[in-house]
Amino acid sequence: MELKTYIETHRERFINELLELLKIPSVSADRKFEADVLKTAQYLHDSLEKAGVDQVEICPTAGYPIIYAQKIIDDSLPTVLVYGHYDVQPADPYELWDSPPFEPVIKDEKIYARGACDDKGQMYMHIKAFEAMVATDSLYCNVKFMIEGEEEVGSNNLDTFVKANKERLGADVILISDTSMISLDTPSITVGLRGLSYVQVEVTGPNRDLHSGVYGGAVANPINTLCAMIASLHDDKGAITVPGFYDNVAELSAEEREALNRAPFDIDEYKKDLDIDDVSGEEGYTTVERTGIRPTLDVNGIWGGYTGEGAKTVLPSKAYAKISMRLVPNQNSDRITDLFQKHFEAIAPKSVKVKVMPFHGGEAAVTPTTSTAYAAASAAFEEAWGVLPIPTRDGGSIPIVALFKEELGLDTLLMGFGLDSDAIHSPNEHYGIFNYMKGIETITLFHKHYKSQM
Ligand code: BES
Ligand code: MN
Ligand code: MN
Predict the structure, then answer these.
(1) 151, 157, 193, best to mutate for ligand 1 pocket (most atoms within 8 Å of CB)
(2) Ligand 1 interacting residues, C-beta cut-off 6 A
(3) What is the CA(440)–ligand 1 centre distance, in A?
(4) In the annotation, is 87 catalytic?
(5) Per-residue pLDDT at 364 exceeds 90
(6) How confident is the model at residue 360 (pLDDT cuts 50, 70, 90)?
(7) CA of 195, nearest ligand number
(8) Residue 277 bears catalytic tag
(9) For ligand 1, atom 19, which residue shows the shortest CA distance?
(10) Using CA positions, which residue lies closest to atom 16 of ligand 1?
């Protein structure tokens, strides 16, 4: 049977298997789901086995296991190492979902479930593409799989695994589907990702919660203080005020910026999709640039004091915030964390004490548009979608791309099939069945073109 016919013939089953995978709540951030995360690893182990790998192993780590699998058909052929993640973000707040996050439903040709796009749907396409190539006797390249269960919590144990398995992970390219494309009319290949520095801050005022009448006005309120400190982290042009923050930021040439802005982008659609009357950000940059090539500082959560029902008059002892900084090439996440910490301590008034706790971080990545893998992906998109894809930079982070380059010396090809409107990390995450099926086909074509161009 022809490859394309095989994919069409097995469409229903390919979709159903993904639905089964989506029913397992593999939330890595919450220990409550530990058994489910492990069950997901087993599900993928079995799927890979059935798809026809020669070797598959659930490799333990200090955290959740990494699934490694391979099929080596000929040492003289190129080897593609597929990376993906089987863990998902927490589904909270559950009440904002139109249907339960772990009971996938199909509506308007889209699958609604946590992880539908990020990354179970996109990762599983590679297993199905592999199955189709094996079943039709058309596996073009050697294939290895490395699928982890801790991406959404910072990939803390991947580093050790990669260092300990350098030989086994030997490949010519790393292939990842965990990003988005511009639109169904304009497929794209991601060539840049932002880095990340994530911290939690704690501001302490008095040693205990106080009566806000008895003490209010005379003792620093840590929530008021924290808000003022956070507000001062941007100037009136939307630039970040942490000294040294922009020191190493790679500036793009006028031509590069122009090329970036040539990609189709409809600001009115963008605003309409988000129900906002205006966008907001650093002066002098377009929306595409603000998310693609400029660093950011955002509060992800803020709390303290009384947030229960009704009113309680309290001057709280403590206030907290979680802050993420998205980084661009040449910024270093450890250095940025350090600069932030020093600045945040420096701007704190004497009336409070502050603590900065660094969480995970990771470096930005830029991948080449001149590689064989890029050319193969470009040809694959052209063949499957009828148009040449455009290179784009995504605002999200996949810190392991920089790690792979450093440890394995390998470039990554980011062949994402999600859409920005898929609501990843949000309620009602979904993934188009068209993207899923077309993606499977495109992946097989990547393998074909990669082999013939090597
Ligand atoms: N798949 C995303 C990253 C992504 C999404 C890149 C869309 C480009 C476009 C990934 O699962 C993710 O969410 N990464 C985290 C960072 C991680 C260290 C927790 C992120 O970007 O917040
Ligand atoms: Mn992801
Ligand atoms: Mn994610």
Answers:
(1) 151
(2) 118-119, 151-152, 154, 178-180, 193, 196, 360, 362, 394, 396-399
(3) 21
(4) yes
(5) yes
(6) confident
(7) 1
(8) no
(9) 152
(10) 397
For residue range 67-120, what is the model confidence (pLDDT) as tens digits? 999 999 999 999 999 999 999 999 999 999 999 999 999 999 999 999 999 999
Tell me which residue has tokens 């005022």.
Answer: 205
**What pLDDT is attached to residue 454?**
80
The answer to whether 223 and 319 have CB atoms below 8 angstroms apart is yes
Protein residue with its CA nearest to atom 6 in ligand 1: 396
| CA separation for the pair 386, 384 (Å, rounded) | 6
Query: How many angstroms does the Cα of residue 193 sit away from the middle of ligand 1?
Result: 9
Instruction: Please tell me which residue in 17, 151, 178, 394 is annotated as part of the active site.
Output: 151
